Structure formats: C-alpha cells, structure tokens
Amino acid sequence: MTGAMKRVCCACVAVLVLAALVAPVQAAEAELADRVVVHKAERRLDLMKNDTVLRSFRIALGLSPEGPKTREGDFRTPEGRYLLVDRNPDSDFFLSIRISYPDERNQRDARARGHAPGGAIMIHGMPNMPTRSAEYYRRTDWTNGCIAVSNADMVDIWLMTARNTPIDILP
C-alpha cells in the first residue's frame, strides 16, 4: 500500500470514528468551550466556559517543553494567547487544530534574534503512522512543539471548540 493510500485509509477511519462519536456527544448536549487553557507544567489542557472547566485532558508537549518557543526547531511549545484557527481532518495525526502561532510579536522577536519563529503548531491526536510504542506516546513529551492528546480526547476537543476560540498557553 502506498503512502497516499495509507493516508486516505487513515482519513476514512478518522471520519468514521468521528461520525460514530458525534451522535453520543451531541446527545449529551456537550457545551462549546469559549476558551482553552493549557498548563504546560501540569501537562493539562482545560476546555473552559465562563471560567468553569468543562473538561480536562492530559497532554504531551514538545521534546523540550520548558520555556516559550523562540525559534523554529527548538522543540518548544509556545506560551501566550493565540486562537484556534484551522481544522484538518486529514493530517498526519488523528485530527488537528492549528494554533495561530506565530503572531506578529513572535515573528518580530525571532527576526530580532536572527531566527525563523517556526510554525504549524497544532493540537492533535496520535500519529496515524506511529513509529514508537503506545506507551511512549502516553508517557513522554514527544512532539516538535505541538500539544498532543489521545485520539478519544481529540474528538472531544474537536467537537467542543470552534474556529477562533482563544487559547492561553501558560508555563
């Protein structure tokens, strides 16, 4: 099976799983979050509504998680206030939601240091084509700077957030 065929198969499976899970979540009348808060030190993502936590999820971060992202390739997860801007049901990971990093300040600061700021920071599920054991992904910070959750948690985050939902990524 070619790489393209594998991606199509993975995308089809993701859509079927998502479709199977949408009805139960909608039946439970899941609330839409008005804000996402990531606590990097606690490895936790909270979906918030009116300052009340709707749901909390365990997360994995970039390979070098301490401190804010300062340049491309530093394996850090950014810190600051951004927005959830684009959704990709056909990514290399089980669903992905792009975060609006880098903003103008991030770009300016990186340029001042002579670096590119990096980009393509996402909230996403597990790799569609894993190269490590499931245990590794559960217990390790393993991304290039993204925020990773389990596939089941990614479905909930996907369904409980909308485009342009603010996300605060805290140290």
Task: Present the secondary structure layout.
Layout: H1 3-27, E1 35-39, E2 44-49, E3 52-58, E4 80-88, E5 96-99, H2 104-112, E6 122-124, H3 134-139, E7 147-148, H4 151-160, E8 165-170
Parallel strand pairs: 1-8, 6-7
Antiparallel strand pairs: 1-2, 2-3, 4-5, 4-8, 5-6
Describe the structure.
With 171 residues, the chain is of the alpha+beta class. The protein has a single domain (3-170), classed as L,D-transpeptidase catalytic domain-like. Helix content is 29%, strand content 25%. The protein has four helices and eight strands, in the order αβββββαβαβαβ. It has helices at 3-27, 104-112, 134-139, 151-160; strands at 35-39, 44-49, 52-58, 80-88, 96-99, 122-124, 147-148, 165-170. An eight-stranded mixed sheet has the order 3-2-1-8-4-5-6-7, with helices on one face. Strand 1 (35-39) and strand 2 form a beta hairpin. The protein is globular, with a radius of gyration of 16 Å. The N and C termini lie far apart (42 Å). The model is unreliable at 7-19 (pLDDT under 50).
CATH fold label: L,D-transpeptidase catalytic domain-like
- The radius of gyration is 16 Å
Q: Distance N terminus to C terminus?
A: 42 Å
Order of helices and strands: HEEEEEHEHEHE
Arithmetic mean pLDDT: 87
Fourth CATH level, the homologous superfamily: L,D-transpeptidase catalytic domain-like
Q: Uncertain segments of ≥5 residues (pLDDT<50)?
A: 7-19
Main sheet summary = 8 strands, mixed
State the shape. globular
The CATH class name reads Mainly Beta
Q: Could you give the order of strands across the largest sheet? A: 3-2-1-8-4-5-6-7
Strand content: 15-25%
